[in-house]
Amino acid sequence: xxxxxxxxxxxxxxxxxxxxxxxxxxxxxxxxxxxxxxxxxxxxxxxxxxxxxxxxxxxxxxxxxxxxxxxxxxxxxxxxxxxxxxxxxxxxxxxxxxxxxxxxxxxxxxxxxxxxxxxxxxxxxxxxxxxxxxxxxxxxxxxxxxxxxxxxxxxxxxxxxxxxxxxxxxxxxxxxxxxxxxxxxxxxxxxxxxxxxxxxxxxxxxxxxxxxxxxxxxxxxxxxxxxxxxxxxxxxxxxxxxxxxxxxxxxxxxxxxxxxxxxxxxxxxxxxxxxxxxxxxxxxxxxxxxxxxxxxxxxxxxxxxxxxxxxxxxxxxxxxxxxxxxx
Amino acid sequence: xxxxxxxxxxxxxxxxxxxxxxxxxxxxxxxxxxxxxxxxxxxxxxxxxxxxxxxxxxxxxxxxxxxxxxxxxxxxxxxxxxxxxxxxxxxxxxxxxxxxxxxxxxxxxxxxxxxxxxxxxxxxxxxxxxxxxxxxxxxxxxxxxxxxxxxxxxxxxxxxxxxxxxxxxxxxxxxxxxxxxxxxxxxxxxxxxxxxxxxxxxxxxxxxxxxxxxxxxxxxxxxxxxxxxxxxxxxxxxxxxxxxxxxxxxxxxxxxxxxxxxxxxxxxxxxxxxxxxxxxxxxxxxxxxxxxxxxxxxxxxxxxxxxxxxxxxxxxxxxxxxxxxxx
Lengths: 327, 327
Fold this sequence. Notes:
Two copies of one chain form a homodimer. Chain A is α+β, with helices and mostly antiparallel strands.
């Protein structure tokens, strides 16, 4: 027998949810943020059922993890190494099983243990479709990454593999794969893990900060690859008004990734892999790629209207159809 | 001919929305909050179509105003007099008319001009039902109001009329009224205005702060009457573990409010009127009710398990059916 949130009623539901929040968040709707005299970064992400998550392929704990992880990734790729708080807004159909809600929060708390912060408040109301709105707050850091901070002559660095999450999604949905090449059980595992439990690049950001050459300024452009590798580089070029030239042979793929070129699109446009994509002064980029095993210089920036090229100067078509389009 | 947001496409939609944000919020998902070395208050509110707003009775500008106003009210009733920022999360069906989105933001900006702050970021995605998630941030103040701050022997103060918004909703929906008593055109106007353009008690909070007697501490309990007068007092009693005794003759009603007792329920349980409900040391309460024309002492607190009584000691039944139950 399941207990729906309609059975529980609103007042009891809110009481139960408050058990997942920090101690003092008991009686008020509004929460306090102790700023420790630092400026803050704030980010809101919406996850809508059937658009951003699907219960047939992700359980509530995975969804809870993922909505914290995606939000944390946005703060990280802006330069925040200290995550402070999360406000959680939930829209739930009255027929929702309470167990689902409980497991959602449990998944969030597991991610929060990993990346820091605490749930400090939120709102909960009914609606036809499940929707999760999370607003995360982090501390600002000396390394304030902006998409618009790139300069011609930078190196472009990626901190890890691309395409895994897209493959994981395809496997979970039993989609047709780009080719009939056999894929290893290890790759299958890593891909499904990457899709269900994406891991924001906190360690990678810390490495970036710790390896800055003393004589180099803190100027750095950054974003995460949540919308796909090419889209994240397009964003940097657009905001910084420069071009990018990418080295085809330097793209980061899982060692078991099929060699068949049909698989390249998922590496370039797959999205949801949450690596840091950085445009850095050359010395800083070189130091980072030496110090951080997973990181690699994948290209450079140059003057010119926002465009992306391969190193053979073939232009990369920013094919809108491959991007995440929600409308 | 209408232009839907599907016609516009996601990238252009986000560009258009960013025009309503503060100047620098152009290229990044994450926004900065300058804390001026003060601690902050944060609040998230969700508004779901057909549950919190209905397009047949409110236009987009009204809805925009209202979702800022309700959020501001939560910050005000926690003691914040300086509103800093809003993050706006929008879920919109692809068929949504762009004009509706534009007017929604225009309505928000009108309210923001009135109460302070700026839109600093957010998220936008598609979904079957319109949903607005707003996270507001304000500065913390010496007068930090909590529901749980009441002590036995306080006076309970309300800063204005109750029931108007509920009447406005009934009129807009052509509901049957509590009696056939004639209601004045002035009352009709005020009720519809109260429902469509609720006005948070910022002036009233400032009066509360400015009139604190020097020898009285900053301890004060407060909430807004957004869920109804009785529900707000129930919340204070519950969180402060005390009882409230209310004076029937002191309840604040619009001068044109019908005398027929059938109309009392809307005063007590109507909700969405956004007055401050305070439990204060007696001297502070007396000073406020003298200084602020709209404010009145409507009862007092005493020791005992959380309950509410009339001054003839008849217990007020906290009828859950009268409260806002979303599930």
